[in-house]
Specification:
The complex is a heterodimer of chains A (about 375) and B (about 325).
Chain A: E1 7-12, H1 20-33, E2 37-41, H2 46-49, E3 59-62, E4 89-92, E5 98-101, H3 104-113, E6 118-123, H4 128-136, E7 141-145, H5 161-182, E8 185-190, H6 197-205, E9 210-212, H7 220-232, E10 238-243, H8 250-256, H9 263-268, H10 286-299, E11 303-307, H11 319-337, E12 343-348, E13 351-356, H12 357-360, H13 372-379
Parallel strand pairs in A: 1-2, 1-6, 6-7, 7-12, 8-10, 8-11, 9-10
Antiparallel strand pairs in A: 2-3, 4-5, 12-13
Chain B: E1 8-18, E2 26-31, E3 52-55, H1 68-72, E4 78-80, E5 91-93, E6 113-116, E7 118-121, H2 122-129, H3 133-139, E8 142-146, H4 154-166, E9 170-175, H5 181-188, E10 193-197, H6 203-210, H7 215-227, E11 232-239, H8 247-257, E12 263-270, H9 276-281, H10 296-309
Parallel strand pairs in B: 2-8, 8-9, 9-10, 10-11, 11-12
Antiparallel strand pairs in B: 1-2, 1-7, 3-6, 4-5
The chains are: A alpha/beta (about 375), B alpha/beta (about 325).
């Protein structure tokens, strides 16, 4: 094997999803095939910006044998940073005051000093803007999309989604059994602020009674009607899946949600008052609670809310996510080899291809209301609340 | 623009008829910029010193009816998701691309987009404060300067409070004390009452939850008590469950303040979540989202310790 001394870096931003180690494995193996070295930057860009925090070094020097047994594991060997933003790095200055500094120039300098040819960043949709800005400044950036909500635009499937879907499905099965034994209606909230893929597909997998997704505003009166028919027919339990970003239709919202503005909140800052927003998610669990209470009122049958929340991000990757992660990692190396920068690897079955970051920034992959998923759900008798 | 000889302040907001920021009915002037990053902060819009954009989606009327901001933003930081039959065409902000230039603010007809923070002179601030003159003169109130950290703008705050004093207005400040001593000294000369925070006792815990250690804060407070014996001080603790709602912290604060007779009270401010929606409006993440307010029992127990230290009867109805 020849080596031309090229060095690529891989780093992770945002939360954990299943399959992170598979992507790293894909990068290391594909780079090794080209005779390149792979380094991992610990905790986003922190390994480069704060090397003093890492007694063993801020960079992890990968050897192929290190990743032999990695792809199927949960968690991540590299660590990740919740806010992976070199343009706003928190710092305590000489005056003992906290401030946020733009350290992007310094980061570029450190990448050069470490002879890092390109950075393969594994991130969710939210961080794409940061990487786009870095690419515009001259850093060579290739992005791999991860998302348990499958909401990154310009790719069919982000890795991590399939594992989350499997876990959500398994939990919904259990929630239904719990509902059966307690003779209640289970209302299970899953992640999905803008995109309802996880709620819709997991609800389909267990043929739940209803799936409420952000794309289709719901009228709980209609959901209750459906549930009441089933209750009347002798089935004394139910299962409703709700995405955390699902919202009522404006008409039903006026009817059911109190519109009063909290006077104390108003006094804190008049500019930022107003009623709780349709898509300002205050905290996870609210959607399940609101829907469960209202359905209990409307059906006259006990409900119980359950929140899966961040749990879907943990665990080991499914076979689909392992394959996808390895494929994404290997393809990112191919992009570097073809001198691409400012691109995202995109899965457009059957191909793994590349799209400019501009195509994915400021977009969210949502469920088209005319899509086959929606049609199938309706055919299965799943109420979408409309 | 104002002449450079007149100090101007970065003002976040002027809030009328406040009853929790000192005696009587008061007008509170919130300044922008804070040297701490307390994870429970209920005024995230006050943290950064520069003006910054906030967006309240509830007020947005959508791209179809309006959409001016989409055309105005020079950074392409505003976008629309477009999904569903009942299309959600409210705009979204890409906070990573936004530079807080504020160009979208004047074109937004519903004030869904707005900028937090503007430069104001002492005269401009006092003109607004004096509108409430009758109320605070009747109630023994006055002006309170808060933040953010009002002592980060010592020239402006000192000038504002000096002029308020000259006009016969009672003055108070709210501070967390993490500033160089000369800043505090300069302002305190014009202050009748200083409300000041003892967030955590242990320096490392203070660093964990507020971003920096607290040695200088405590040194400043001690120096303030001793340098200005004629001023009145009220210590406060924002009570955060699992962080500082323990007897140990309350007793350490009492040990710190009780030797100084000019520290006339110690108040507990139970943590609340009123600030959390504002994190969404600013595109930030609220790290304490899963915490709840302290229980009435905890509050009662801790307040009883304070009342005892101050030689008072317990005040159970104070919550």
């Amino acid at each position: 094997m020849t080596t031309d001394g090229k060095r690529v870096a891989v780093n992770l931003g945002g939360g954990y999803v299943a399959g992170l180690n598979a992507v790293i494995t894909g990068v290391v193996l594909a780079a090794n095939e080209l005779g390149w070295e792979t380094v991992g930057i610990r905790d986003g860009f922190d390994g480069l910006l704060f090397p003093e925090r890492y007694p063993e070094g801020g960079l992890l020097h990968f050897k192929p044998r290190m990743v032999d047994d990695l792809a199927h594991s949960s968690g991540s060997i590299l660590g990740t940073a919740a806010r992976n933003d070199p343009f706003h790095v928190r710092n305590v200055n000489a005056e003992n005051q906290v401030e946020e500094l733009d350290r992007s120039d310094e980061l570029l300098e450190k990448l050069r000093a470490e002879k890092i040819e390109a950075v393969i960043s594994v991130v969710e949709g939210r961080a794409l803007g940061i990487l786009l800005k870095l690419a515009r400044k001259g850093a060579k950036i290739v992005v791999v999309p991860k998302s348990v909500e499958n909401d990154v635009a310009a790719t069919m499937l982000s890795f991590g989604f399939n594992s989350a879907l499997s876990y959500a499905t398994e939990t919904l099965d259990r929630a239904r059994q719990a509902a059966q034994s307690a003779r209640k209606i289970g209302v299970v909230e899953v992640l999905g602020e803008h995109a309802g893929w996880l709620a819709l597909q997991s609800a389909m997998a267990v043929h739940a009674d209803a799936a409420l997704i952000p794309e289709i505003p719901y009228d709980l009166g209609k959901v209750a009607q459906k549930l009441k028919e089933k209750l009347k027919a002798g089935r004394d339990h139910g299962l409703v899946v709700v995405a955390e970003g699902a919202k009522p239709t404006s008409k039903s919202q006026e009817a059911s949600i109190p519109q009063a503005t909290d006077p104390i909140k108003a006094s804190l800052s008049p500019g930022a008052t107003g009623n709780h927003g349709a898509h300002v998610i205050l905290r996870s669990g609210q959607a399940a609670e609101a829907v469960a209470l209202e359905l209990q009122r409307l059906t006259n049958h006990e409900t119980y809310p359950l929140v899966l929340g961040q749990l879907v991000k943990g665990g080991a990757p499914t076979a689909v996510d392992r394959q996808l992660g390895l494929g994404y990692g290997a393809s990112a190396v191919r992009a570097v080899n073809e001198s691409m920068t400012g691109v995202m690897v995109s899965f457009q079955p059957p191909d793994l291809t590349f799209v400019p970051l501009d195509d994915a920034v400021n977009k969210i992959r949502t469920v088209p209301t005319g899509s086959v998923f929606v049609q199938v759900a309706r055919s299965l008798g799943i109420s979408l609340g409309d | 623009m104002m002449s450079t000889s007149i100090p101007t302040g970065r003002v976040l907001n002027i809030q009328h008829f406040c009853t929790h920021d000192g005696p009587g009915i008061r007008t509170t002037v919130f300044l922008k910029g804070c040297p701490l990053r307390c994870k429970w902060c209920s005024n995230p819009e006050s943290i950064h010193p520069k003006p910054e954009l906030a967006y309240n989606p509830n007020k947005c009327i959508g791209e179809k009816q309006c959409g001016f901001c989409l055309k105005t933003c020079p950074e392409s930081a505003i976008f629309v998701v477009r999904s569903g039959d009942e299309a959600d065409d409210k705009v979204r902000i890409n906070w990573d691309l936004c530079t807080n230039c504020g160009k979208c603010v004047p074109v937004c007809p519903t004030e869904a987009l707005y900028l937090f923070g503007k430069e104001m002179t002492v005269e401009e601030v006092l003109a607004e404060v004096e509108q409430d003159g009758t109320f605070y003169r009747e109630s023994g109130g006055g002006i309170t300067v808060s933040g953010g950290e009002c002592l980060l703008q010592p020239d402006f705050t000192a000038a504002l409070l000096a002029e308020a004093h000259r006009r016969g207005i009672n003055t108070a400040i709210e501070t967390a004390g993490n500033v160089p001593w000369p800043f505090m000294e300069k302002v305190l000369q014009h202050v009748d009452l200083m409300l000041h925070d003892h967030k955590l006792t242990d320096p490392e815990r203070h660093k964990k939850w507020c971003g920096v250690t607290n040695e200088r804060i405590l040194a400043n407070f001690k120096k303030a008590y001793e340098t200005f014996p004629e001023k009145r001080f009220v210590a406060r603790t924002p009570l955060i469950p699992g962080v500082n709602d323990d007897e140990g912290h309350i007793r350490s604060v009492l040990a710190f303040i009780r030797p100084h007779p000019n520290v006339i009270d110690y108040e507990l401010l139970p943590y609340h979540r009123f600030g959390e929606s504002k994190y969404g409006f600013l595109g930030r993440v609220y790290e304490l989202e899963d915490f709840t307010s302290p229980s009435p029992e905890t509050l009662y127990h801790l307040r009883a310790i304070i009342d005892e230290a101050f030689g008072r009867q317990a005040t159970p109805d104070k919550a």
